[in-house]
Structures are given as structure tokens and as C-alpha cells.
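User: quick one, sequence for these C-alpha cells?
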């Protein structure tokens, strides 16, 4: 990819071309549980290069405001969250969830005129989302399937990933790599084992891709050999601007990710499992909480994975030799994250050599790039409507004569359909 295009794609701060596009969508900011109670401790969050503070006021409203006080620029993280707002500890200026200054003790007449930056928040699917775009352009709440399910049917975690969101997200739309780096986990992991899909994924390492533009983003068809008369298709969904849905494995919970830039060189990688029609089984939920499947183990008290760049992702050469892990790194997410972080905080896009199996990556970059440039010319971004986001991934064996796109038009037309999985 030419550097000019890469620069547009990876820069996400205020006023940048891509940053302006991303700010037109609801942004997943933090877990509801991070600000669980009214008047709880505020949480510093950096999103799209902006240093912000999330808190929940006395009435239980979630707020996302500038981290720094309007008076002298002190961090409100050190403030007191009480009686309907956050009060700066230095001279007592106080702000509500809308960033409005409620009190300036030393100059009361000033309060009404003072405010700090704030972004409206909603809570859905266990996540606090913020809207960081122009006030009159706020879209309807997200329509992603997992975000609309009851708590018993979904589980979400987030982890720090030390690289740009784009190279992280590109792992989520690249089904080829499952045949390589994840091949030994497929039979062991509690959220993947015993799925027929594993056999096809391991046997055929050269998926053939078709990518179809869709109202939500891209529908990515990866074809592998199935049985004698069939192909095994993995249908991955990429939803504007940072959601991916993973084709399911057997009867296990469905999965997906969100790739939200913290700044140009770091992102929050969210991992979500869900079942559209029933609660998550207790043993799977326990395994997810233990960091298995697409979740990770953390350094206690943080969202930083235990295996991280500073310790070479705890690579285990014995496990690599014994074929317990293809790369020697443990777990689906850290296998992906380690490879993506190893590219550098921002990969060298001009130096890469893409091949036919990278088609989904090329098309995703193009879709984001075009949407960002068109927005500059006044064309509204795609997939802002919640109904367009209601799509599902699938795994299916189809007769070799059937065109997967034709099948998908019928079978993946809405969320009222059965889950297609093998
Ligand atoms: S710096 Fe916050 S009140 Fe003075
Ligand atoms: Fe992966």
C-alpha cells in the first residue's frame, strides 16, 4: 500500500481524515463494569488520541469528559466524584456528565460560562459507548446482534494491543491464518474443540476468497475443501468501521471483535462471545473468564495481557517443538496480537507483498479509505443505520455447484435465521 493511503488510514486524531470518519460512529469506550456504581472512581481513557475521563454520577448517568480541568489543566482523575459531578481537587471547580461547569467557588458568576469537552454516552451490551462526532449527526444506537442480547447470552472483554488498529483488525478478516498459527489450538480450546470445521481448516491451508461489498461493509467468503462433493465456506463479516464477526465453530458460542484506536499506535481489542438464542453454558463462560478462547489472561488489575511485547509474549519454544502451539505463543488472541505487534507499532505498509489471499485486507482498506475521502466531499458514511449492522457470520458446507453468495443472500438475510455452523 502506498504511504499516502496508509497515512490516511492509520492517523485517527481530531481533525484527521480517518479520525473524522470514525467519529461519526458510536465508539465503544469501556466496560460498564469499569464504572459500575454511581459516584465510583473515575477512569482515564484515551480514545482516538484524546485523553478523556469516564465517570458515573450520583444519578447513575455515564459521562465522558476531557480529562483536564478548565481552570489550570489539572487531571480530574484526581478529583472527587460526588453529588452530581466531578470536582477538581485543586481549587474545587465542578463539572457534570455533560462537561458543564456547576461551580467555580472563587468566582461563582463564571460557572455558567465554563465547560469542558464532553461526549454523549449510551450503555448497551455491557459497554459504555460515546459519540465523538458533530452533535447534529449522532446516529441511532448500534444494531450489532451481540450488543442487543441479554447479559446471560453474551460476554465481552477488552485488552490493550500495542499496535495500530488497522493491522490488528486485518487479522480479524484474514481467515487463512487460522490454518497456520491457530491449528493446534483448534482441537484443544474449550470454545473450538470438537467442531467439524477444524478438520477442514487444518486440511486445507489455502483458502480461496471472494469478497462482496454489502450495506454493512464487506461479506468475506473463504472457501476450503470440504467433503468429496462439498466446499467448506467461512463467511466473515466486516462491519464499518471496526467490527469483525468470526465464522462459528460447531455449537460453540459465536464470536466477534472490535478494534478501537487508543491513538495511532495502540488499540483496544475487544473480544465478544454470544449465543443468539440461549444463555452461554457455564463451562464456556468459566473458560472465557479464565482467558481461554479469544480472551486472554491479564496482568492483575490491568487490561494489559500477561503475555506482551515486553516479555516476548511468553513464547515457549518447547511447545512450538512439541506442536502444542504453532508459534509457541499461547491462546488465539495472543497468537494474533504477538504477530501483529511484532510488525512494529505501525507496520511498513509500502514494504509488504500482498498475495491473492490478502484480498479481504485490500478491500477493507479501500472501503475505509473511500468512505473517509467521500465524507470530506460531503457524502454520508456507510452503515450508520442500526438495521444495516444486524448481520451474522457463518460456517457452512455447500455442494460444490452452489455459489456461496447466492446461498448467503437467502440464508444470511437477517437475524431471524438459524445459526449456520459446522
Ligand atoms: S485546576 Fe482545577 S480547579 Fe483549579
Ligand atoms: Fe486469529
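Assistant:
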Amino acid at each position: 500500500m502506498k504511504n499516502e493511503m496508509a497515512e490516511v488510514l492509520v492517523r485517527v486524531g481530531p481533525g484527521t481524515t480517518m479520525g473524522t470518519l470514525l467519529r461519526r460512529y458510536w465508539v465503544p469506550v469501556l466496560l460498564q463494569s469499569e464504572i459500575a456504581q454511581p459516584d465510583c472512581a473515575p477512569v482515564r481513557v484515551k480514545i482516538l488520541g484524546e485523553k478523556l475521563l469516564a465517570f458515573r454520577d450520583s444519578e447513575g448517568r455515564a459521562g465522558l469528559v476531557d480529562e483536564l480541568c478548565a481552570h489550570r489543566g489539572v487531571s480530574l482523575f484526581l478529583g472527587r466524584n460526588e453529588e452530581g459531578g466531578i470536582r477538581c481537587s485543586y481549587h474545587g471547580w465542578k463539572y457534570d456528565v455533560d462537561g458543564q461547569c456547576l461551580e467555580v467557588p472563587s468566582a461563582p458568576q463564571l460557572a455558567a460560562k465554563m465547560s469542558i469537552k464532553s461526549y454523549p454516552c449510551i450503555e448497551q451490551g455491557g459497554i459504555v459507548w460515546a459519540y465523538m462526532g458533530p452533535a447534529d449527526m449522532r446516529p441511532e444506537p448500534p444494531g450489532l446482534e451481540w450488543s442487543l442480547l441479554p447479559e446471560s447470552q453474551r460476554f465481552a472483554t477488552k485488552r490493550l494491543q500495542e499496535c495500530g488498529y488497522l493491522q490488528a483488525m486485518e487479522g480479524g478478516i484474514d481467515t487463512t491464518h487460522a490454518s497456520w498459527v491457530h491449528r493446534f489450538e483448534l482441537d484443544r480450546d474449550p470454545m473450538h474443540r470438537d467442531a467439524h470445521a477444524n478438520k477442514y481448516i487444518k486440511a486445507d491451508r489455502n483458502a480461496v476468497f471472494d469478497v462482496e461489498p454489502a450495506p454493512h461493509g464487506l461479506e468475506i467468503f473463504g472457501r476450503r475443501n470440504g467433503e468429496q462433493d462439498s466446499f467448506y465456506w467461512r463467511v466473515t463479516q466486516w462491519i464499518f468501521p471496526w467490527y469483525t464477526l468470526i465464522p462459528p465453530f460447531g455449537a460453540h458460542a459465536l464470536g466477534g471483535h472490535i478494534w478501537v484506536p487508543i491513538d495511532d499506535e495502540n488499540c483496544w481489542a475487544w473480544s465478544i462471545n454470544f449465543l443468539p438464542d440461549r444463555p452461554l453454558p457455564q463451562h464456556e463462560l468459566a473458560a472465557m473468564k479464565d482467558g481461554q478462547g479469544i480472551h486472554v489472561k491479564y496482568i492483575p488489575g490491568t487490561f494489559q495481557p500477561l503475555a506482551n511485547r515486553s516479555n516476548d509474549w511468553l513464547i515457549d519454544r518447547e511447545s512450538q517443538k512439541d506442536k502444542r502451539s504453532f508459534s509457541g505463543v499461547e491462546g488465539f488472541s495472543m497468537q494474533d496480537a504477538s504477530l501483529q505487534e511484532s510488525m512494529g507499532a505501525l507496520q511498513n505498509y509500502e514494504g509488504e507483498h500482498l498475495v491473492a489471499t490478502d484480498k479481504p485486507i485490500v478491500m477493507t482498506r479501500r472501503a475505509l479509505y473511500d468512505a473517509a475521502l467521500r465524507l470530506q466531499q460531503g457524502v454520508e458514511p456507510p452503515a450508520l443505520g442500526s438495521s444495516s449492522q444486524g448481520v451474522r457470520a457463518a460456517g457452512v458446507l455447500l455442494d460444490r455447484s452452489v455459489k456461496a453468495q447466492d446461498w448467503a443472500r437467502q440464508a444470511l438475510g437477517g437475524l431471524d435465521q438459524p445459526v449456520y455452523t459446522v
